[in-house]
Amino acid sequence: MIGSAAYRRLWRPNRYWLAGLLGAAILVVLVLSSVASLALGPVPLRATVFGLPAVAFVAAATALFVRALHHPKPATRGRDLTRAAVLLLIGAFLWLAVLDVYTFTRAAGPRVAALCAIACLPTTAAGLLIIRRLDRNEKEPWLLVLVATVWGAIVSTSLAFWGEALWDLLFATSFIPGPAADASTAYAAGIFEELAKGTAVLLLYLIMRDEFDDVVDGIVYGAAVGIGFNFMESIGYMTHLYAVLAPEGSGVAGAAVQWYWRQVIGLFFGHAAYTAMIGAGIGVARQLPRLRQRVLVIACGFLAAIAAHFAWDAWQALALGGAKSPGVQLLLLHTRYLFMVGPFVAVLLVLLAMGLELEGSALTRHLQAEAANGEDAVRPDEVAVLMSPRQRFRARMAALGRGGPGAYLRLSRLQTAQLSLAMERWHRERREIDEPLEAEEELRQRVLALR
Amino acid sequence: MVDAREDFRPLYRTMLGLGIVAVLILALGFATLLRFAPPGQRTGLRAHVVGVFPYDPEVEQVDGPAMTRFQRDQPFAAQIDWDQLPASMTVAARWYDSLDAEVGVVGPARAADLARMGALVPVRTPPGFHANLPGTYTLFVVRYANGQPVELLGTESVVVLADP
Description:
The structure holds 2 protein chains of 2 kinds. By secondary structure, chain A is an all-alpha fold. Chain A has 2 domains: 14-361, no CATH class; 375-450. In chain A, 80% of the residues lie in helices and 0% in strands. Chain A contains 16 helices and no strands. The longest helix of chain A is centred in the last third of the chain and has 41 residues, at 389-429. Chain A is globular, with a radius of gyration of 23 Å. Chain B is of the alpha+beta class. In chain B, the strands form 2 sheets. Chain B has a 5-stranded mixed sheet with strand order 3-9-8-5-6. A 4-stranded antiparallel sheet of chain B has the order 2-1-4-7, with no helix packed on it. The radius of gyration of chain B is 24 Å and the shape is flat. Classes of the chains: A mainly alpha, B alpha+beta. At the A-B interface, helix 7, helix 8, helix 10, helix 11 and helix 13 of A face helix 1, strand 8 and strand 9 of B.
């Protein structure tokens, strides 16, 4: 949506203060963890020292990015976006350095870590592409999807790492190896990892309300955060297994097996699904009228993510129980994803279908209304094209054939602006919007300017 | 005016349903925790791990001073002061490697029997491997009741180095 149209007033709604508080709380938790590590010892101090600046870089990049999206001057916007990108890169580099050198891959070495990262890139990119395409009516901006992914990979992993390290310190030695210890570890993973990832989605909901429209967007952003987290975790597990098995000559095979489970089979049946449930809760809350309902539905999303993650970590080994034949074991190794995460993914798909249906009918209705008002922002023959991803694509390709890449981009921007206008109308109709009425008119003028 | 066809109740109810299922799963997890780590089993006793020593599998004896780091091809075993535990107490000790695989076990047996045998807890190289895998190895000394491990009496960790 057009930032200057959506945020013309200088004041900021309460949700910005909430987001600020949440951001400050994240920083406080990380600082406290760092201080605690000095006193408690077993938490790696070096990870604290080098990990904290990485988090600060990402936080600063996020702030610059948000400012850029809402700044009216294109020159300032461009400068802020460049700075945000550079800071993100530095943050990513720092965190990767921490992860590779100190936390997981010291034994495997930076070369192996880099190779593991390269191996995970295509699958992660494919996952993001598929997730974004699910939002067939109004796709989310790539930049925002990537910010969510990077946040999941860098900040969420850092937060979860600290939480789980402290949990281990306090509770791990109290439990006997076996089901009790497995349950304890699974609680820690479920609670800390999902809270760490969910915080990213919650911040997007609070800060980027104009790009966080409904349950569909929630699922997309949630899954993007989860895919980012999964990327970093995959590298960690791959390098760990490589380091352990390399002396026996099976390091590459061990890393490859981890890659297969985490980047192929588990790409959508793991972190992406868990965090998508948090996103679904927040997305549904976005369109509910009462605060009590919103809080309840967000809590349900978090609980569902924690429970699904817990169930997998605590009980997935049970799915293999009793199987002796290698063939049956191999089959069970695969089908356990369907048994244990499959039901949650199925519910997510149902939520997605319901969300797309609601969104689709609302956008069609508002595009038709806009076409009927005679202001030419949307023409009657454009409604069917705008509501079909395939027809939109065909129209853009036709524009490419007629006028080259410039025409393609112009039509792409026009279609995006038209759908944003319809979305704005829908939110205004439902009284879900805190921008002034002029914002809608500015969006309309923007569409007309793009024609 | 809001369109009458827009009914958000199915979305809301589906999320509430997910929340209820989640609470049930987490409660089941808590029940698992209580089942396998039942409260009220704490005796306050601690098992004294004398140390982890280089081990000679031929004669099944430890040899040399206690160490915290071992080479991959260097067998090692933990020595536990079983005498310090009540004679009738059923106990076991297990080693786990950095992949959480069990790589050595003694017991469960009465502490008096283990003391009489002078039972050591050696790490066994997993079948198919030439030497111990590198990483942290952790020893858990556990008390049993009614055939089930119920209390952690002590732990000890050593590191197996990657390079021989």
